[in-house]
Automatic annotation (TrEMBL):
Keywords: Lyase, Pyridoxal phosphate, Transferase. This is cysteine desulfurase. It is an enzyme of class 2 (transferase). Belongs to the class-V pyridoxal-phosphate-dependent aminotransferase family. Csd subfamily. Transmembrane segments: none annotated.
Amino acid sequence: MTTPNAPALGLPTGNAGDLAHADLVGRLAREITGQGQAGSAPFQPQLPQTPQVPQGLETLPTGSGQPALPGANLGTPSLPSGALPSGFQPDLSAQAARSFGAPPVGLPGLTGPSHANPVGATPAPASANLFDVAAIPSVHPFTNSNRLPEFFVPSLPDVAAAIPGGPDLHRQTAADHPRANGFAHALAPHLVPRDPGKPGGDAAQEHFSRTGQLPHPSVPAPDNTGDYYFLSPAPPPARGKKAAAQPRVEPSRHAGPAPRVTSHGSVPAGAPFDVEHVRKDFPALHQSVNGHRLVWLDNAATTHKPQSVIDATSEFYGRHNSNIHRAAHTLAARSTDLFEGGREKTRRFLNAPSKDDIVFLRGTTEAINLVANSYGRANIGPGDEIIVSTIEHHANIVPWQLLAQATGATIRVIPVNDRGEIIFEQYAALLSGRTKIVSVTHVANALGTVNPIREIIALAHAYGVPVLVDAAQSTPHIPIDVQALDADFLVFSGHKVFGPTGIGALYGKRHLLEAMPPWQGGGHMIEDVTFAKTVYKGAPEKFEAGTPDIAGAVGLGAALDYLESVGLPAIAAYEHDLLEYAQEGLADVKGLRLIGTALNKASVMSFTVDGLTNEAVAHHLDSLGIAVRSGHHCALPALRRFGVDQSVRASLAFYNTREDVDLFLRGLHTLPRH
């Protein structure tokens, strides 16, 4: 197993074939990110219709204000006549040797993007519509005096019905939170008008009223200004000017209204964000530490829990405690319903096709280990390559290193620039017929960088390569839709999304989970056992040996309910404003160096202060009741890219306030200097 060091991470150097391949994928990378000059050097010979050449890129939707993607002629480099040089294309024989439990080359369904099928996913059936949520059943048949099931799991309309505002909410929004209203309009223009005083006046709404569908991306959309850069890549800013990115929503797998607003069953995205109301739901925030009120800025490590999560977990142990699935008594039925209700809520939160695509585990770390040990050992061998990025958490490095050591595979590392952003062209250059999996973070835990995950997946799929997304740091901040992303695997942890510790989830595409062998043995995951042979259940049960964290699954479901009731689009907009406010203040702190200045960034600020150790800075802030984290944040390669082994990290959540930020900045200004 070899892991290249930083100096070896550039574009390939070598024979003409390597250079031609590097040029081809570099051009493709620029086209996918909308920055290319495809027509500048057209390649005359027709390339074979193989998975490494995405077909139908001309129909990929682009964000508002982004240039249209090219047609099928991708502008590959000019070459001498004759056979293509070695290394110009991925090794098809190596691809054919892989087994995904599907056709020999690539993944099933990777037949090329289109408007309804933007990144190669198999379209959902025509009947699949995320606005059809009333059919989600309650999970327990017993009723009480309120005529609701005793252990009721609310459907999305039940949740939405409890939210005040009604049809006039957008008018209040425009007055109280116009930026959030603009964000809401970008998410669902058919639901939220750009000008609340003129319902139905937008071109998008008029198109929807005529056709019943959102406009095709080729139809110019209204220019919604804003700085929601965590959802949309921006063109490079002019020298001396700050980039102004525009909102973007991940596309749906199927035609019809964008799913993200109602898939959360939440406040409409444009609702005014009442942070003081939110704070009342978190008892841990209302305490004193060292004689000061607690300011919790360690959210990237773990988040506090709303009272509803605490109550759900406590009630499980107080009333319903039983093992699940393997008994006929009443408490076992209750526990089973509550546990599987948590799985359904997780499916809904991620917009997964089926709750059977959701595997409960202890968290992100165990989920990545499962994929590495099950999928990896079945599909990765000597000479194969695993791609990760420089800015990964150790949990997305070490399991792949262990696999590489055991199998003879090689780890290839995507470099990052001085802002902490992956260099997309060099990622493209690393992909080849030897690549067997790409595993990357959505949001970097030490830097806050938001990776262009949709484009990363699309390019990997062009090579028939599956992608695992580490969403531990994105799920608390950004709406996630695994079908729109076309993610093959996605993992996250409960304690990052305001749920209990020791619980998390893996999403996997059905055909991948079914083809993967179990990685642990024990009770519940079996159909039959003899001393000669064991027959396993299907996914997800075959990956859930033994008694699971039942209370954790119940608490996770309650946490996701809570996030949906607040609304992740509103959370994202509020946190973005708070992050900008905080980073502007950090610029005035003497000797402070901010590490990670990506244009697309979530709520993390990692920094050092000249002349002071990171531990001394953290201790000083703690004496003022301000909790931050110092250390390497389980991301040593990321920090070492910037010449340090440790940093101080302050991380925000939607229950933080500008007053919290002011206290934090005041604490930094009062650091003892020698």
